[in-house]
Amino acid sequence: MALLGAAAGVLASGIATPQYRATTTLFATIQSGDDTSQLYQGNSFTQARVQSYADIVASPQVTEPVVESLKLNMTPSELGSRISAEAPVNTVLVRLTVTDTRAARAARISNAVADRFAQVITELESPDGDMAESPVRLTVVQPAAVPPAPSSPKTTLNVALGLAVGMLLGLGIGVALETVDTSMRDSKALAECLAAAAGPPVLSSIVHDSRASRRPVSLRDDTHSPRAEGFRKLRVNLQFAEVGRPPKVIAVTSPLPREGKSSVSVNLAATLAEEGARVCLIDCDLRRPSVHSALGLVRDAGLTTVLVGKAGVREVLQSAGSFSVLTSGMIPPNPTQILGSAQFASVLHDLAEDFDHIVVDTPPVLPFADTPAMAQAVDGYLLVARAGRTSRGQILDALRILERVNVPVLGAVLNAAPARGDGEAHGYAYRYQPKPDSTGRLSALVPARLAPRRGAPANGHKPPAPAKTRS
Fold it and tell me: Which end of the chain is more exposed for a tag (fewer CB within 10 A), N or C?
């Protein structure tokens, strides 16, 4: 807004018509008086009279003869609007100024008006119209000269004024937007929102990364990035979310679509498997499934394939490297009924016997009833909010819906948090990178008890069988 204001000042100066000001100075004298007392009285008389002379300059008595003599293409009233006069206090001077679009014409009009003005004053001050007996005489002491430069527009002043107005307007708009914008800007704002509603804590803040769409698994593509460290912090805090009853089946959801819950689900599964745990990620977003596209897997054979009895759950499990994935399968017409069915709970119970952790990617809470419907099959919910998008009201509405199903909300995650200015993402002044040994390997930094055997999978369990489909 400041730049726009300054540009407006430049533009206004560029399109404005230049105006020139020419000033003529007249001196008023008294014609009678020989001694000092009479001269003093005459001077006081003249000072009192010149104050009223300034109002006569633009009168028709002055302007009409000037318009006729100079053959000006304007009316006497228009000429009067261009004339201004001032009589400084305690002086006998009258300064007459004419403004015009041409410098030479402004000086010519100013001098003509001064001459005619002096005649009019003499006539007015003469008794019975006898000019020879007029006690007051106006004499031009400084005729008007052709002004060398226009008096307006003043580009510097206009730019400064536009800049100031733009800054004030920008500040006003910023304050207004800050007042009406209730979105979660950082983890502190999210924590305050949750605390006011007696809600769960903020478990982690995931830094925004423009490459996240091209690198869906942060721990695999950039293992020491701030984004990857945010998911590791989420894993650690989840372990302490329910100390008495550690959650095994974790449903990841968000108030509205496009807030990053699927990305959090994928990376949460990856970071849980990083410690060697057996992890299964299930895509239960039967409205807009996206896990398969993020990981490059097959969607058609998945959860719905198992629920309709066309395949066993282990037949359609797919591998994403360190963890297993059960994609959504074909999109059904009744997702809410399917996710709330006993068959769905049975599939999750069956998988929970083979895996240490089950991460469930669910539909958003506010538009659909799918996520609350699966409450009987999950141990807790993880609520994802997006920085700068999810509002305070949306978070509170989502919490109220989830609290009605009597399943704990383990915590919240702020996704796409600003890299600077966020309480948790602030301060990444350096990045930890382990140094390889002389052979270029990192094995010397891995304890022997954690190093996998040659040929064995890194997570310590057999990889799931490849996906099978039935014709």
Answer: C
Stated pTM of the model = 0.61
Count of Cβ atoms closer than 10 Å to residue 440 Cβ: 6
Q: Which helix (H) or strand (E) holds 282?
A: strand 279-283
Residue 444's pLDDT band, with cuts at 50, 70 and 90, is very low
SS3 sequence, 72-134?
CCCCHHHHHHCEEEECCCCCCEEEEEEEECCHHHHHHHHHHHHHHHHHHHHHHHCHHHCHHHC
Mean pLDDT of the chain: 84
Q: Are the beta carbons of 359 and 280 closer than 8 angstroms?
A: yes
**Is 83 within 8 Å of 76 (Cβ atoms)?**
no
In this predicted structure, what is the pLDDT of residue 155? Answer: 87
Q: What one-character-per-residue DSSP string does 45-79 give?
A: HHHHHHHHHTTTTTSHHHHHHHHHHHT-SS-HHHH
How many CB atoms are located within 10 Å of the residue 192 CB? 13
pLDDT of 283 higher than 70: yes
3 state SS of 458: coil
pLDDT band of 225, cuts 50, 70, 90: confident
